[in-house]
Every structure is written in structure tokens, then in C-alpha cells.
Write a structure and sequence with these properties.
It comes from Lacticaseibacillus yichunensis. It holds the Pfam family Asp23. Belongs to the asp23 family. This is Stress response regulator gls24 homolog. There is one protein chain. The chain has helices spanning about 1-10, 15-20, 25-30, 65-75, 130-150, 165-195, and strands at about 80-85, 105-110, 115-125, 150-165. Helix content is about 40%, strand content about 15%. Strands 1, 2, 3 and 4 form a 4-stranded mixed β-sheet that branches. It contains 6 helices and 4 strands. It is α+β, with helices and mostly antiparallel strands. The chain is elongated.
Length: about 200
């Protein structure tokens, strides 16, 4: 009779369980109502998802990261030559490779979600400033959202100068001369280091 009952139970089981060993006697007993023998138990393992502690997460960005995104984004828009911080007379930084990527940008962050941006820009002479500003604004809003998930709620741009092609060429020459002078000083120092004592 017991064998017939076991055969009936085996017939109703899924194929992968038919060859399984029976539960040991201490586990075959009825489990307390709050525990389910099919759920994991032990320290750190809770059978009830509602009882599991909620994972707390928070992603924040340093203002310099936001400034860098805004600076790089603005620099990709035709018509914007550079963003300038403070005095404009030193345009040579624009043409150097080691330019400060946060220069000319101020940001204010509200509740780690909303950003206001202020720019000091130098534009190419003859450009349609309102059209360039609209394009810069659109690009900043898009890139800040895509890269950080934050929402830009305000953009203001102060145009500090509009440079002609001649002024741009002169600034590039000045920057090249300045870099050449730096290279000469560096080479002279290196030559002194290589001479025997």
C-alpha cells in the first residue's frame, strides 16, 4: 500500500525531482508558519521580500564636473570661441592644450537635481548671437541630462567679446610664440641636466 502511494506521488512529480533523495527526518516535519522550506534561511537571508532592508542610493556630481560638461558642450557649438573667467585680456588660454575645462562657467545646483548655468563667452565676430545662444542652451540641456540625469532650469550667457578673424589669428600666433618660449626653457633645463657635473 505504501509503495503504491509512493508510485502515485512519483508519477505527479516533475522529472527533475524523481531521482531526488527524500528529505532527512528532521526537515520532513512541518515548518513554522513564518518559514517556507523552499526559501533560504539564515543570517542575512529573509524569505519575505517585504522584510528586506531597502537599498539606499544617491548619485551626486561635483560642480567641476557640471562646469566641464557645460564648457565642452559650449565649445562644440559653432560661433563660440571660448568661455572666459574673469579678465578677457588673456585669450591665449583658449588656444592652449592645457586649458581649464571649468573656466568661464558658473553653476548653481538645487536639491541635487536642478541646475542653473551662467557663461562668460567670447564669440566669433559676425555670428548671430541669439541663434548661437539658442543652440548652446539646447546642447547644454541635452548633455547635462544625458550625462547626469539632472535638469537644467536656467542658462544665461554674457558675451564678453566678439573676435574678428585677424584678432583670432593674432591670438593664435601669440599662443604659439608663448608655447615655443616654454619649450625652449624646458629644453635648456633638460640640456643642463644631461651635462656631466
Amino acid at each position: 500500500m505504501v509503495e503504491e502511494k509512493n508510485n502515485e506521488m512519483m508519477h505527479d512529480m516533475p522529472n527533475e525531482m524523481k531521482g531526488a533523495k527524500p528529505l532527512p527526518p528532521h526537515m520532513d516535519k512541518e515548518m513554522p508558519p513564518h518559514m517556507d522550506k523552499d526559501m533560504p534561511h539564515g543570517p542575512g537571508m529573509t524569505p519575505d521580500k517585504d522584510m528586506a532592508p531597502e537599498l539606499e542610493t544617491k548619485l551626486t556630481f561635483d560642480e567641476s564636473v557640471l562646469k566641464k560638461i557645460v564648457n565642452r558642450t559650449s565649445g562644440e557649438v559653432a560661433g563660440v570661441l571660448s568661455l572666459e573667467g574673469g579678465m578677457l585680456h588673456d585669450m591665449t588660454d583658449f588656444f592652449r592644450k592645457n586649458e581649464d575645462p571649468t573656466k568661464g562657467v558658473a553653476v548653481a545646483v538645487d536639491d541635487d537635481q536642478n541646475v542653473k548655468v551662467e557663461l562668460d563667452a567670447t564669440m566669433r565676430y559676425g555670428e548671430d548671437a541669439p541663434a548661437v545662444f539658442a543652440e548652446v542652451t539646447k546642447a547644454i540641456v541635452r548633455n547635462v541630462k544625458e550625462m547626469t540625469g539632472m535638469t537644467v532650469i536656467g542658462v544665461s550667457m554674457h558675451v564678453k567679446d566678439m573676435l574678428t578673424e585677424e584678432e583670432i589669428a593674432r591670438q593664435e600666433d601669440d599662443a604659439d610664440d608663448h608655447d615655443d618660449a616654454k619649450d625652449e626653457v624646458r629644453m635648456t633645463r633638460d640640456d643642463k641636466d644631461l651635462q656631466p657635473a
